UniProtKB/TrEMBL annotation:
Transmembrane segments: 12-33, 45-64, 102-123
TPR repeats: 432-465, 540-573
SMART domains documented for this protein: TPR
UniProt-listed PANTHER family: POSSIBLE SENSOR-TRANSDUCER PROTEIN BLAR, SLR0241 PROTEIN
Pfam family membership, one: TPR_19
CDD domains: M56_BlaR1_MecR1_like
Name of this protein: Peptidase M56, BlaR1
Domain Peptidase M56: 52-261
Amino acid sequence: MTPLLEAFSAALLHFAWQGCLIMALLWVTLFVLRAGSAKARYTSGCAALALIALAPLLTTFALYRAPASVGLATAPFNVLPSGIAHSSSAPRTSVLAAIQSWALPAWAFGVLLFSLRMVWGCAQVAALKRRGQPVGDEVLSLVVRLRQRMGIHRQARVLVSEWSGGPSLVGWLRPVILLPAAALAGLTPQQLEAVLAHELAHIRRHDYLVNWMQMLVETLLFYHPAVWWISSRVRHERELCCDDLAVSACEGALCYARALTMLEKLRVHAPVTALGSTDGALLYRIQRIAGVANHEYGPSRAPVVVTLSLAVAGLVFSVNWARAQSQPANDYMSQGDTLLRSGVNELALQKYMEGVAADPAHRATLQKRCIEAYMRMGRKAEAADVNAQLLKEHPHDTDGLAFGATILLDQGNVAAAIAQLQQVLERAPDNPVAHFDLGRAYIAQGDLMAARREIEEAIALRPDFTRARQALERLSPGAGGDANEDELARLQSESAKAPERLDLLQSLGTAAVRAGKFDLAIYAYQKLLDRTREPSELRGELYLKLGDAYVRKGDSAAALDAMQKARELAPGNRLVLGPLLTLLDGAGRHAEANQLRAGIETVAAHQAELTTQFLNDEVAAAEQRLAKLRLQPSADAEKIRQAEFQLFELKRKASASPQLQPTGRVLESIFVAGMTEAMRKQFRVPVHVGDTLTQDTIGATYSAVKLFDSSLELRFLVQANGRVRLLIGRQPN
């Protein structure tokens, strides 16, 4: 069940006490107005009916949009709690959940039955109208005089009906008054005039439209006695209002009372969609017209007992339901953790997803559990989607940022991964997994010294970090030459033992590329493509890796075919563009390459414009924050320093944004000038020849150059062949 349907189901149950509360308010209002006009009581009843209709809608909206403070978890995704916290309220929660799950189907079935009631009434009315015969000219002239007297401008047909009940009004846009033949024969002209005045009063007041709205509310909220009681009060007061108009139009109260008495002798039950002169408590109406009636304002005892009982049941349910909401995450999380430890990943994922939908207060933690389950099943693209949603709701969540960095690393976007992991460690310097992933990124970049430093830091923070220790051993002197071979052998063995694990196949492909075993990498990626049907973005990523393996092997034709499929399946993956352009040019397909290049330039220019505008806005906001801090008499010097640093970083990014035009192009060469030999040995940039440039890699390159020596300047020059040349040199004094 979706969150919206769950909220609506709960709202239907909450209406148990809400309806009783509205009924009680109307009862008090009618008691206060018992000596007042019928029009005032009718207006109060309509207002109560409107509240009745709005209550479930407003409750649904409140439950669906309920705000909650989300506690951000700091545990790594692949670490589950050591113990399972079983909630003592689990049985109660399951019972309440069962009640709520059945509420919606039961309500839908009831609405269907009561809708058939409306359809049956409409069919009856239509049949009466079809079989009706026009009245004589005398009756028509009487109706015209009454319309003029009562100020009614709408036309109304009058038909003689074979139905042996009282006069009735049907229709709103084209109203029709149905007069039984017996009524025409049994009423005097004065009595007939009074009865017709009553029906015309319904037309003047648009009562037929209001009656249809009443029936709609009765159909949708059929299960609550308060709805029927309020609706009956509205119908009763409506008839009294029309009686008042009829008496004032005919100026003969006694004649009208006799007409009602005569009609009662002829009456049978009217169709549910018709309005009749004999509706309501007829004896009370006659006594009221004659001026001898007592005030009538309240419900009988039976509805009071039923509705109060329903109110108590609704209140008890609502209290228990609210209490149960305080600990749903423990149930979802503990059950999901148990399933995940048992290897039942799909069921664990289902339990976590239910928790994400049902418990906004622990949504972030449960989303991270979903990511862990997806990763265990090798469904990295879906894990990335959940992580994107997590970062959309909590953009500074360090776990989400760290996982996003590993995705960038797997895609080969090493510079962007390093920049994002450094950002994570600025906020959470004691996160061992982030240190380890940063070490992995440095290994991919070729900076083994920095990799060793980060992996050692991860082990210092978590001595039992087995993967970090294994990685450090591979970096040790004498072990580096066989590191890739050992990793490859291990992955081949594990994937052979567990062929269903797609994550092992993907790791095998990556390790095979690093070890130069391109045929093995191609085999692994083709196996993954055979087993992966959805989503298309994941297949596009796999085709990209397959194409890269073909490129490294030297099979340009197969590489081009794979890259084109990657482009088709994942058009938003910009990592495909650079290799695809190179392969198209190499195959002599220059027209296609130029067309693709033009599209890249258009998108890159638009993105650069948006990025520059965004960064300029951020710089202005940072300047305002810094100015406010400096104006505060007791401003913390550390806060001012941090604000100054943030402003410096934003200005740096803003000044670098015009360099974003090369985004999506391949870096052809790097030219460095104005450095000594010693400086060249220490100098590193996070991009390499052959890389496809992105906004992240361009920004990271700018940062690396300026941090190394602020007097250096850099430029990305787009060449005639569409590739980019990076120039780094010293600024003239």
